[in-house]
Amino acid sequence: MGTDFGDVLRGRGLRSTPGRRAVLRLIESARFPLSHGDIMRRLRRRAVDRATVFRILDDLVRVGLARRIGVGDRILRYGPPNNPHDGFRAVFACTSCDRVEELEVELTLPDRVPRSLRRRQVQLLIRGRCDSCTKS
Ligand SMILES: [Zn+2]
Known about the structure:
Order of helices and strands: HHEHHEEEEEH
CATH architecture of the largest domain: Orthogonal Bundle
Bound molecules: zinc ion
CATH topology of the largest domain: Arc Repressor Mutant, subunit A
């Protein structure tokens, strides 16, 4: 965890504030994509209000430090951006429980995909039943 999130933010033209650093750290370290509610719960001890967290998330997405993940349940979640150098993240969403998980996948986009479509904007969603739901 040696990342200096202040440097990361400034590198994308954002001022480094305690709230932005905290949200970015949460998104980068979480095992699962986080919703606004998840982030609010994890920020409990810090005085960052709901509207500020929404603005921070919008800012992070706009500058490419986070990506929005929609899995069809009307809850937006946020995860780290896709980086062509360290793999592509697909999202698994269980159709029985509300489990959502990010998976590293090897993915080569076909030539037909418009060149203007940057990889980090592509979202691959895999739906099915997770292992614990399959057992029951
Ligand atoms: Zn499940």
